[in-house]
Amino acid sequence: MADDPHLRRRLRDIVGERGIVADEAEAAAYLTDWRRAFRGRAAAIVRPASTEEVAAVVKLCAGAGIPIVPQGGNTGMCGGAIADDSGRSVVIAMGRMNRIVDVDARNDAATVEAGCVLADLQAAAAREGRLFPLSLAAEGSCQIGGNVATNAGGISVLRYGNTRELTLGLEAVLPDGRVWNGLRSLRKDNAGYDLKQLFIGGEGTLGIVTQAVVKLHPAILERSTVLAAVATVDAAVALLGRLREHCGDTISAFELVSRRCLDLVLQHTPATRDPFAHASAWYVLAEVGDTRAGGDLRDRLEAGLLGAGENGIVTDAVIAESIAQREALWRLRETLPEAIRAEGLAFRSDIAVAVGRVPAFVEAAEGDLLREFPGIRIVCFGHLGDGNLHFNALPNRDAPLSSDWGRDVGRVLYDAVRGYDGSISAEHGIGQAKRAALLRCKSEIEIELMRKVKQMLDPDGLMNPGKLL
Ligand SMILES: Cc1cc2nc3c(=O)[nH]c(=O)nc-3n(C[C@H](O)[C@H](O)[C@H](O)COP(=O)(O)OP(=O)(O)OC[C@H]3O[C@@H](n4cnc5c(N)ncnc54)[C@H](O)[C@@H]3O)c2cc1C
Q1: CB of 143 closer than 6 angstroms to any ligand 1 atom
Q2: Alpha-carbon dihedral sign for residues 23, 174, 428, 240
Q3: Which residue has the least CA distance to atom 27 on ligand 1?
Q4: How far is CA 128 from the centre of its chain?
Q5: Along the 469 residues of the chain, how does pLDDT read in single tens digits?
Q6: Taking a C-beta distance cutoff of 8 angstroms, is the pair 193, 298 a contact?
Q7: Ligand 1: which of 92, 99, 120, 150 to mutate, judged by most atoms within 8 Å of the beta carbon?
Q8: Whose CA is nearest to atom 28 of ligand 1?
């Protein structure tokens, strides 16, 4: 960390001794991202314990022209929570603001501080017989504030929507240090512009989320989970249609996994095994859930699978018969990001195209990448039910690697995405990693409007500079 004793002293006056990260080794965890792709330096790292403390820190920084970097659980995939290497920024890490303020089962809503870990909120909702459906592999570390700031998606978007759909109200500290209290738990509110939407997916560039009111749903009492082998992505999309006919809106997850992905998990994740005797090019991990127990959901799932088998859509399938089996199937999907990380250098993306166009897109994008980068290893998986793929790639082991490899792969992939009217970021956001790509993919008018919003709320450009725009 850079050394500015005067600044440190003034920050300590606001957040106290416990609110300052002074130890260099501890600081390193706040200055490196999960992928280990970004490293930064900071003038200080503070851990405020209240909205008032966040506001006072922001006011101090705004007055002194010091850049601010909001940080949640630091599980983001695009370097959005990592300071630049100037050493001038103050990192505001939200982990001490982790209270669950209220779980209101009658209104199906919960109020939480931004530093609350997602899994803790899920557990608090479950204790009241409710479900907070946002679910992702990083749920044991990521925080609600980070989920809001990235408009996180995950595995249940198909049924429950993104964080945006799950957010009723917010409290945020603005770049000048004032506090905006929009902590409403209303289902309908058309009284003017919906200001919370600016902070949802704003990646900490417009203010710091300090509290949120989120929607809860009835608890799921019965689930069935299936891993199905399919020969093509087209068959996977056909299976989604079939299961929809049989299971309707009870489908909460519909995940695509390629054979290469499964191989990586089997290689790098302990205690995993291939549930099938024969390899398939693609797999679908799907889950259905019912709010009542003892219904016919399992029968309907089986009927859908049977029909899909008879039509050659599905070539093999296993349905979990126990919680342990369900967890084993999910382990094959959820440890995939870790397995890819174990391979070293990787290009990662989280693109989206319309669900019906996914098969053609996958074929086209794979063709384009293999033509430009012979031997590149495509590692494709994702939330097929939402048209959202992690279309990742590992370099050819036998070819020399240019320093711009990742950028060049991104250029080819994102051109293909544009050709299919897709998005270069379905859920992870832009951060530092995709800024140049955003400029290429959005129209002039979109970029101009975004810049005007940023300029209006943060005229000095101190709130998470160098991110998103
Ligand atoms: C194994 C793994 C699996 C993942 N799976 C998914 C997935 O399925 N779906 C998905 O959407 N994401 C996924 N992610 C990415 C990541 O978990 C999400 O983006 C998550 O929402 C980030 O939350 P965080 O608290 O870690 O935020 P951070 O990484 O700390 O920050 C992310 C961004 O939000 C800003 N920010 C953080 N807190 C605040 C705040 N209180 N106020 C304002 N801005 C703030 C930061 O400045 C930064 O720009 C995965 C990550 C990992 C490591």
Answers
A1: yes
A2: positive
A3: 146
A4: 26
A5: 556 788 999 999 999 999 999 999 999 999 999 999 999 999 999 999 999 999 999 999 999 999 999 999 999 999 999 999 999 999 999 999 999 999 999 999 999 999 999 999 999 999 999 999 999 999 999 999 999 999 999 999 999 999 999 999 999 999 999 999 999 999 999 999 999 999 999 999 999 999 999 999 999 999 999 999 999 999 999 999 999 999 999 999 999 999 999 999 999 999 999 999 999 999 999 999 999 999 999 999 999 999 999 999 999 999 999 999 999 999 999 999 999 999 999 999 999 999 999 999 999 999 999 999 999 999 999 999 999 999 999 999 888 888 899 999 999 999 999 999 999 999 999 999 999 999 999 999 999 999 999 999 999 999 999 999 9
A6: no
A7: 150
A8: 74
How many angstroms does the Cα of residue 285 sit away from the middle of ligand 1? 23
Structure tokens at 176: 């000048």
Tell me the CA–centroid distance for residue 307 and ligand 1, in Å.
39
Which sequence spans correspond to the domains of the chain? 5-93, 100-218, 222-338, 344-426
37 touches ligand 1 (CB under 6 Å) = no
User: How crowded is residue 264: how many other Cβ atoms within 10 Å of its Cβ?
Assistant: 22
pTM over cut 0.90: yes
Q: Which atom of ligand 1 is nearest to the CA of 203?
A: 49
- Ligand 1 neighbour 465 (Cβ under 6 A): no
**Type of residue found at 352:** A
The CATH number of 344-426, from 2.40.50.140, 1.20.1250.20, 3.30.70.2740, 3.40.50.300, is 3.30.70.2740
Those residues whose C-beta lies under 8 Å from the C-beta of residue 300, and which sit 6 or more positions away, are: 246, 247, 288
For the domain made up of 5-93, give the CATH fold: 3.30.43
CA of 340 to the centre of ligand 1 (A): 18
Thinking of the domain 222-338, which architecture would CATH place it in?
2-Layer Sandwich (3.30)
CA 81 – ligand 1 centroid, Å: 8
SS3 (DSSP) at 176: coil
